[in-house]
Write a structure and sequence with these properties.
- This protein has one domain: Orthogonal Bundle (MetI-like fold).
- Helices cover 67% and strands 0% of the residues.
- Helix 1 packs across helix 11, helix 3 packs parallel to helix 7 and helix 4 runs antiparallel to helix 7.
- The longest helix has 37 residues.
Length: 291
């Protein structure tokens, strides 16, 4: 009998190498990492206390425009070091932006899950609240609340957290309803799992990627809102400082000392651009329909 031919062994195809993020995304990641490092190490790297006055060097220009290394980014109208105030402003603005984004995501996701779980009157009430919130201009609401209730850091963060919470509620409700219609959520529920376990251990991890992308898209919006309210004098109050606060004070010296306004304005633009680039990249990476 003829011998059976031996099977031909072929090497497994090599796995495709994971592509690096595009250069713009790498720039965004690097810039955001730099901002986080500045916020965390602000007390160490700040050359002066951000409230310290140097009246002999009022409106001193930055290095390269006639100024010296004593104040690399110049000073403001009271002789305060712009670099030190910029470092403190970055910390304050990032804390506000992160806090408000997390508050909005938690509030919207929780209400969206409640609407998807109870349905009926609860769902109608939540969706009516979502439509009502989306129909009110947020800037007018913020101006009214801050004018009547005063201003504090906690209230300011909570108020900014109400921005775009309806976006998370719609996303969480729709994705929770879709997940509940699939087999895994119903199977876990029939096994006796509590609603907390079904939504917290099974549904939330499956929709987390979409929520994370939404958070990265809402983060720059919160930074711009904080900057706008601080520019109008209704945000962070002295002696605290923020990026919008610095821009608001610098507008009065735009012709004589433009560096007071330009330094925080450049940081605002680059930070919002970096987070937006990262958000778009994450959306493309995590959305299976775009692969």
């Amino acid at each position: 009998m003829p011998e059976a031919p031996l099977p031909v062994l072929t090497a497994a195809p090599p796995r495709p190498a994971r592509a690096l993020p595009p250069p713009l995304v790498l720039f965004g990641l690097g810039w955001l990492a730099l901002m986080l490092a500045v916020a965390l190490l602000g007390d160490v790297i700040s050359p002066y206390p951000y409230t310290q006055l140097d009246l002999r060097n009022r409106l001193s220009p930055p290095v390269g425009f006639g100024g010296g290394w004593l104040h690399p980014l110049g000073t403001d109208e009271l002789g305060r070091d712009v670099l030190s105030r910029l470092i403190a402003s970055i910390r304050t603005s990032l804390v506000i932006a992160f806090g408000a984004t997390i508050v909005g995501a938690v509030l919207g996701t929780t209400l969206g899950f409640l609407a998807a779980h109870f349905r009926g009157l609860v769902e109608q009430a939540v969706m009516a609240l979502v439509d009502f919130s989306a129909s009110i201009p947020f800037l007018i609401l913020a101006l009214a609340v801050l004018a009547f209730l005063g201003n504090s850091m906690g209230l300011f963060v909570l108020l900014l957290g109400l921005h775009a919470w309806e976006r998370y509620a719609r996303i969480a409700r729709g994705l929770a309803l879709s997940a509940s219609a699939q087999g895994y959520a119903g199977a876990v529920r029939q096994l006796g799992a509590s609603p907390w376990r079904v939504y917290g251990r099974h549904i939330l991890p499956n929709i987390a990627s979409t929520l994370i992308v939404s958070m990265t898209l809402a983060f720059p919006e919160v930074i711009l809102l904080e900057s706008g309210l601080s520019f109008l004098g209704l945000g962070v109050q002295p002696p605290e400082t923020s990026l919008g606060n610095m821009v608001g004070y610098g507008r009065e010296y735009l012709t004589r000392a433009p560096w007071i306004l330009l330094a925080p304005a450049v940081v605002i633009v680059l930070t919002t651009l970096s987070v937006s680039l990262i958000g778009d990249w994450l959306r493309d990476r995590l959305d299976p329909t775009l692969r």
